[in-house]
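Morning F.,

Quick status update on the modeling queue. The single chain you submitted on Monday has been processed. Sequence for confirmation:
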Amino acid sequence: MPRIDQWLVPLDRVLRTLSGGMHASRPMPATPEAALPALERAHAGALLRVDHVGEVCAQALYLAQSITARSDALREQMERAAADEEDHLAWTAQRLQELGDRPSLLNPLWYAGAFAIGLLAGRAGDRWSLGFIVETERQVEAHPPGHLDELPHGDLRSRELLEQMKRDEARHGHEARHAGGAELPKPVREVMRVAARVMTRTAYHV
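Structure tokens below.
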């Protein structure tokens, strides 16, 4: 790849992530829209905003880790997973629009922080980078069930969307573990959980 493309392609991904320009390669789960009371619609929108932030962060993490990957096989694995996450990003953005809500105002901050963390994980080496994916996807996979419990009962469209995302996240974690991901030290896992809770609580409102 020409040297200028090595910078332009990642820059294009950054801009499309933050501008809402990502397009899904798979159709969004097609459960029909249901009429929701205003309060339930607002709550569902806030929950989907949290998931949209998670997908913004996933784009940053996978881009940073693909840049720092030391093997072509790992780089290709990161790019395949990022393609699924692009679908999730586009789907959650579409669902936010359907619910009459908006993305987080702090998305540039979330992206920058996730990108920095991805660079650190990638610099630590491929086994640790894969291990970071395993733990990230484990925590993300554990996160949507709470959302599923909190979603309004009539919001079947959001529910089906989150269930599909959960299946994809589980597959990403399994693939990273199978590729040799190392188990992260417990203090690192705990810091990741705390950071995820802060992000979740903040993104629900902002």
